[in-house]
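Researcher: Quick one. two chains, 432 residues in total.
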Amino acid sequence: MSENKSKMSILTNGILNENPVLRLVLGTCPTLAVTTMASNGIGMGLAATFVLLCSNIVISALRKVIPDQVRIPCYITVIAGFVSIVQMVVKAYVPDLDKALGVYLPLIVVNCIILGRAEMFASKNSVVDSALDGIGMGIGFTITLTIMGSIREILGSGTWMAGLGKLIPALGADFSIRIIPESIDTFSLMTSAPGGFFVFGILMAGATWLTTRPKKSAPAVEGGNA
Amino acid sequence: MVKLAVIFFTMILVDNYVLAKFLGICPFLGVSKKLDSAVGMSLAVTFVMVMATAATWPIYKLLLCPDWAVGTARDMSYLQTIVFILIIAILVQLLENFLKKFIPALYKALGVYLPLITTNCTILGVTILNLDNGYDFIESIVCAAGAGIGFLVAMVLFSGVRRRVEQAVTPKCFEGLPITLVAAAVTSLSFMGFGGIIDAIFNVAA
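Model:
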């Protein structure tokens, strides 16, 4: 039983307690850059999750083969390989997402979340645990990007999930949900650079508050993780 | 000449990598606490940026994807990411060894920051963006230098802002990074004021 629970906690760890963006403060660049729209956040999150999962598995499998002195270059090569795969797939099947993410797609290589998890987790743990860690961290990353993208998109352009139709063709290319009526001027600063920093700061404060506040429901939460 | 100047100043003021394009946020938040480490890091970044551009541009244009190869089977531009990151990693390592041996004073000043630079996204970013923008060799070098100086300007300005922020009393959950990010938002807002200044000075439409 405890085995199962610890596997579960590896998976859920990345979502709030060790949320890569808000708690570990890794991978801030793509977080700020692509979250002008919620759908970009989802796309970026999924791409990074795929790379994170694959690189965690491969690096964990090779952890006894890779010599300690040259581990960072090895990790980077593995990661860069998977990023190239993602780049090609996205370019071929979702060209609009490729345009929206632009240079930040190849920059997943230097996303510190991926190298960070390789170094902190995958190099020390079994393949299964590393895969779960990759998925958990990826979900945490995707959720954070989506929330941030939603806030910025709703305040900045009044719509929600515009462009999602390009990720899921069934929705139609012009899919978007209008939250703020067109007659109201939007807060366009939110979609530009300062808005990114601002929303990120607020969200991080929120996550800090959530994880460090004096817990009333503490026994229930800890019982789940123990 | 005018075009080079436009590229250079645009990179510093309008398209500032840190404050407008969100590249290199990690060192921006991590190292900007003290002025001297901020300057050291930025100088190291500028140096590696220029070196990396000088190395990757010819390799891409001569080896990976020469102009005649675009669209043919010889087009190996898909290797860009993997080749560039390896070049940067090797370059940083070489640079570290070189400085250690020949310019120990500079090595001491930059020492700690050099290894960190490999995973600094501004470097990979500038090399890729130079090619995306179709700059020629000289323009790429100037663009890289501008990006580096822009990084320096942002770091130095922000380390000053940050000293004030650290002394301020904030709500508990805002302590540390969150309030720093909000301060960065204000700094970035001030840089937005430069929009259009380059076009006005050099009288060109960008």
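Chain B has a mean pLDDT of 84.
Researcher: Thanks, that's what I needed.
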